[in-house]
Amino acid sequence: PILFVIRQKQAVLSFQVPLILPMVTPGYTLAVLSDIKRYNIFFFFFSLLQFFKYVFPDGVDTVIVKVNSEKNFPCSVMSIQDIQCPVYDLDNNVAFIGMYQTMTKKGAITVQRKDFPSNSFYVVVVVKTEDEACGGPLKYYPLLPDELLDAGNRSKTLDVVVYPAIDSEVYVMGMLFCLGIFLSFYVLTFLVACIENKRCVCVYSLSQPPYWLPLLCSDWFIFCHSGHEAFKRRLISSHHVAIHFERSLDTVGRCRQESLSSVEEDDYDTLADIDSDKNIVRTKKYLCVSDLARKDKRVLNKKYQIYFWNIATIAVFYALPVIQLVITYQTVVNVTGNQDICYYNFLCAHPLGALSSFNNILSNLGYVMLGLLFLLIVLQRDIIHNRALMRNDINALECGIPKHFGLFYAMGTALMMEGLLSACYHVCPNYTNFQFDTSFMYMIAGLCMLKLYQKRHPDINASAYTAYACLAAVIFFSVLGVVFGKGNTAFWIVFSVIHILATMLLSTQLYYMGRWRLDSGILRRMLYLIYTDCIRQCSGPMYIDRMVLLVMGNIVNWSLAAYGLIKRPNDFASYLLAIAICNLLLYFAFYIIMKLRSGERIKCLALVCVLFTAVVWGFALFFFFQGLSTWQKTPAESREHNRDCILLSFFDDHDIWHFLSSIAMFGSFLVSPNPSGWVDGLKKIYEKT
Q1: What are the distances in angstroms from CA 580 to CA 483, 604, 621?
Q2: How far apart are CA 442 and CA 450, in angstroms?
Q3: How far apart are CA 463 and CA 419, in angstroms?
Q4: How far is 488 from 508, CA to CA, in rounded Å?
Q5: How far apart are alpha carbons 164 and 110 in whole angstroms?
Q6: Is the previous residue joined to 74 through a cis bond, with omega within 30 degrees of 0?
Q7: What is the H or E stretch that residue 348 is in?
Q8: What is the DSSP string of 175-209?
């Protein structure tokens, strides 16, 4: 070969012709020699150093360099370099300076004037010697001494386009649009509160005072005295509610006040016959809410407030290292210029300061603002309820389902943290950071299921410590699945077995209302139960409704476990989230069906909220499945899914997913605290008397 040495102003460039290019092969490092004749040397030399120069026009501070090709391979590297010599245009040095990214068909880099003091830059595109970096096959070249190897035609036709990026006005419009959408929910909530506060909902007496029956459409009400017997008969007949009016509710209130003698939860458990009493009450064939709401309300309030304080503590300890880590990621990207570290939608990634994709971060503002709004709504309801308790309001003491707000506070905090951690993930999205985006999604799904169960089972709902320990185990498996689950058969077998066992244990806990023990005699008791109920005499399940729910739940979970074991999806975190969402939807549907089956009505406001939320969820999922990038593939392959902005030239499909999903989650939360209706009040009075 001939060695060329070129002295330049600030550097020395040397290379040889024919050029030796290393080929990465399994176990060998070979050299591919180009067969170039002597009189073609200088032509080869000048074509090798071909690149493009761009000068920033006046008034343009940011441009997008877009490179397109009709062919996936050969794999290539697109580089943006400052105007200086030497220009790094070889596969082994193109990453030394500037910004660079691998590409197949698409490549795009946003370039800012402030990063280039000369107000200009070079665009360099280099064809790599192998395609593995772009997801292509790794060819095997056998070692044959004294024989030249042909790597094939490694040429690529490209279109290079440079066009101005958005200006500051578009940034301002995007931020105002984002703020305006979510501030409108604050305004709407304020208007609804004002309207409800002015409504006069009369409460008719079904007997002589002081026997009150509250007809509640909201938390704001007044009492109106009336003795209309016709209205009383119509009310009872229309809702099939049988009420005994002989007992004074004052007596009920006094009995309830007398039971509030201590704030210790285990005081109730110190009675000599408490175990038999629990077994008798909780294993009845027909249970009422009052059977599962016997513990001291103040004790339960403290118990459920722990949910909020625990999740607040978890949020602080989880968020601080996450923020530190993503700042480090962004710094590494800015310093090294390696655009393959983070999986952005490069065709709609608008930088701001040190952030590479500000629009994907801004669109998460909805989770934070709507989570805060939900907390304010819960706080308002909590204050009203506490004031009613201080007045010894019989409605607050004895009517409706038990009201505990600790889980609501935890749900609102989880929604806010989801927005913060999703924003952290989008600082530099990749597979190692994806757990930040999903951890509090698991929290939200779990807390929603716990809240639905707590409404009718406040005494036996899981404690905060047990619930968060289970959610921690879910996040632990999520991390294991992301790191070790891809194509690992042993991991999927272990996870599927644990999934099925957990489903069976939870089913047993729900069916027997906690009145069972997991000890050394469990197998003996199971065999005895099978013998007495299935072999000796064939008897159906005592709790048919619960059995139907649990059978459906087991079918769903066993099917999901089988799907995971057979298909072994690469995106384990999303698979785990799908399991949580399926179980939440199943239990929510069961809850609604049981309300209707028990003769309760769904209030108009709640029904509208459910329908609105379902529609928004549908649109949100449509934008979610557009798939603008995917860290399951190589960075070059992920860029093939990139698309231009579709809203205000600032937001892409994934940003719209953030907008709609935050609204849908907020609507889903509103369904939970919405008053269950005045029929619950009738039923509770009947159950208590």
Answers
A1: 20, 28, 16
A2: 12
A3: 26
A4: 31
A5: 9
A6: yes
A7: none
A8: HHHHHHHHHHHHHHHHHHHHHHHH-------SSST
- Look at the block and give the residue holding tokens 């386009």: 161
* pTM summary value: 0.78
Strands 99-103 and 21-25: unpaired
Mean pLDDT value across residues 620-632: 87
* Alpha-carbon gap, residue 137 to 617, rounded angstroms: 40
Residues in the chain: 689
Structure tokens belonging to residue 333: 């990207």
Least confident of 91-95, 176-180, 263-267: 263-267
> In the structure encoding, which two tokens stand for residue 578, read together?
């799908």
CA 230, 236, 237, 239 dihedral sign is: positive
Assess contact for 491 and 485: CB atoms under 8 A: yes
Where would I find the H helices in 267-405?
Answer: 274-282, 297-336, 358-362, 365-390, 394-398
Residue 553 near residue 503, CB atoms below 8 Å: yes
Pairing assessment for the beta strands 99-103 and 28-32 based on DSSP bridges: unpaired
3-state secondary structure of 287: coil
pLDDT, tens digit, 9 for 90 and up, residues 162-182: 989 888 899 999 999 999 999
Distinct helix (H) and strand (E) counts, the chain: 20, 11
| CA neighbor of 678 nearest in space, from 264, 337, 212, 312 | 212
Which helix (H) or strand (E) segment holds residue 355: the answer is none
Q: Residue 382: CB partners within 8 Å, gap ≥ 6?
A: 405
127 backbone dihedrals φ, ψ, rounded to 5°: -85, 125
Structure tokens at 593: 């069906």
pLDDT band at 402 (very low <50, low <70, confident <90, very high): confident
- The span from the CA of 357 to the CA of 594, in Å, is 46
CA dist 38 and 48 (Å) reads 16
Q: Exposure string (b/e) for 509-532, b if CB count within 10 Å is 16 or more?
A: ebbbbbeeeeeeeeeeeeeeeeee
**Integer Cα distance of 284 and 282 in angstroms:** 6
| List of long-range contacts for 90-97, beta carbons under 8 Å, 24+ apart | 90/15, 90/126, 91/21, 91/126, 91/127, 91/128, 91/129, 92/22, 94/124, 94/126, 95/337, 95/338, 97/337
pLDDT tens for 460-490 read 778 889 889 999 999 898 888 888 877 788 8
